[in-house]
Amino acid sequence: MNETTTPAENRLRYEKSPYLLQHAQDPVHWWSWCPGAFHAAKQEDKPIFLSIGYSACHWCHEMARETFQDPDAAAALNRDFIAVKVDREERPDIDAVYMAACQALTGSGGWPLTVLMTPDQQPFWAGTYLPPRGRQGQLGLAELLDEAARLWHSDRQRLLDLGQKVTRHIAYEPPSSPVPPDRTLLLETVNQLRRRYDPQNGGFGSAPKFPSAHDLLFLLAYARSEGDELAREMALTTLEQMSRGGIFDQIGGGFCRYSTDAAWRIPHFEKMLYDNALLSIAYLEAYAQTGRARFREIACRTLDYALEELRLPGGGFACAQDADSGGREGGYYLLTRAGLEEALSPAEAGAICRRLSIGGAESVPHLLDDPAYASFWPEHSEACRKAAAYRRRRPLHRDEKVLTAWNAMMIAALAKAGRVLGEERYLRAAQDARLFLKTRLTQPDGRLWHCWRGREAAIEGQLEDYAFYCWALVELYEATFAPAYLREAANLADQMKGRFWDGDSGGFYRTSAQAGRLLVRQKDSIDAGTPSGGGAAALALTKLARLTGADGFRTLAQSQLAWLAGDARDNPAARCFALYAMTEALYPRRELVCVSSGGIPPWLAGVGEAYRLSVVAKTPDNARALANLIPSTAGYPLPGRGETLYYLCREGSCAPPVDTLDALRGLLSAGRELVLG
After folding, report:
1. What DSSP line would sit under 517-542, residue for residue?
2. C-alpha angle with apex 577: 310 to 256, nearest 5 degrees?
3. Which 8-state DSSP code applies to residue 88?
4. pLDDT, tens digit, for every residue of 28-68?
5. Is 101 helix (H, G, I), strand (E, B) or coil?
6. Which of 104, 124, 493, 674 gives 20 to 30 Å between its CA and that of 244?
């Protein structure tokens, strides 16, 4: 990140971010976010023009083509401003600060995010997409820049005052009032979601409509714990309808980022790693609760998409695929019957075109008009594979940044698939991705990097990186019973506390005290495109405390949950991942301790999913390591050669051990939801 290059040039060619490199040939004299940019702004007495986006974003491409390539717009930027370009995926901390400013100034937000601010980083104007010149009542960049430059020289105090006012607003933190989470808060969240629920199409609110996997995970967890059928139905209907719509790639698998309509028919076409990871978990949970083959199919097709399209050499995952192809939004995905007849036989093409509503004009494939939609993939999977191969002739940009938090979400999804489905290939992929993070994104002292690209790790890890990776490691432990994963999770939790915890007021900060200074240091509790890091921290700590029995983890988990509960009182539905974590604490699991001298039974990892148990497995090989991590396991003696004993416990009190699967089924039968074995 070059800070000493010659003035009057576009400096982005020195960057590694695919998004910044997309702008490296702009006539704008871009800087990356670095001290040199702010030093130049002070020296030249110019305000900052900040533009934030990401490489797979259609409207970011439009503003790049239409506005930043415009000679007049570029000249005005270069003359009167210091222009700074930020990849929001590379710097979610910067994006969060200025998205809060945009919402404070305008009531809404989005990408590309456009901000004008002082050299001291205080924002005085914010918006999103801007054409080069005004049209049809929409403000243009030329008019904005002219007026801002005029005010900067003629009425600067007005801009400075506004910047200070916005800064005070986004820096304000209400007095801390932690409260223990309770079931009333969960019920209020369900009621808030119910009021926004679309019973016809599923989902919440109107167009544009987002998958919001964190909402669905909370509803499924609440339904499983409380037996609330309406909560379950909201989640299941949403999952069913999304899987029929164009937001799900019916040809190649995987989900696009959101739907432009209420029925999930027409997507906004970029595909993000985090959406596909978290939605996979939601479909796996739906399958675990219902046994419906459809949910299993969509989970597998989503995970298989990630393995085929996003996995990189070495096991890590790229973060996104583009919305645009060949300069057109959705150009990669739109199909015609004539095009499919190039790849398929006339009979195959005719059959899938009828079922996917593909006609003579370019169409988004969907199953919303097919009453027999559940039979589509079993009957036409081979034709879809041929169509996917035909489609791959088209260009499609992939952003190959490896983001620690997003990869951790995919590790958690793959580990859950290994447990729920018994599919070894998913578990192996999870282990490979964990090894990628361990070897490329973990520093020698255990600290994390945030991102990796081009054989280089960069940017100190943020709360979301530590929290989601800690959660993923716990999920991996529960899938494999390898103590190394639990040990690594415990070490990360200790790092997370030391770097991000507010010991005075409670709650985790988004960035560490050692990170570069931003306008404000925020705490992270509200779900946005991705679930909150604060919610992920609570989930990881709660699971870690339950498995290890460690008082330190239990106390920290309780403190974080109390801080989140106090923070959530006004609008809990905006914090569903935190509420998802609360279900883990408010509905304690029974514990199953397997002590075996003959090897861990292959079905054991599925027990936690099937019966909502916390499972620990002790063998002669791991007994010493396990005793260091979970001291209580020392009290369970190893049986004779080839024998296995199962202790079913609740809050440390155990029933007499049993030694067969049938006997264990008998103990668990009151809570049985899936058949073992």
Report:
1. P-S---B--S-SSS--HHHHHHHHHH
2. 35
3. T
4. 999 999 999 999 999 999 999 999 999 999 999 999 999 99
5. helix
6. 674
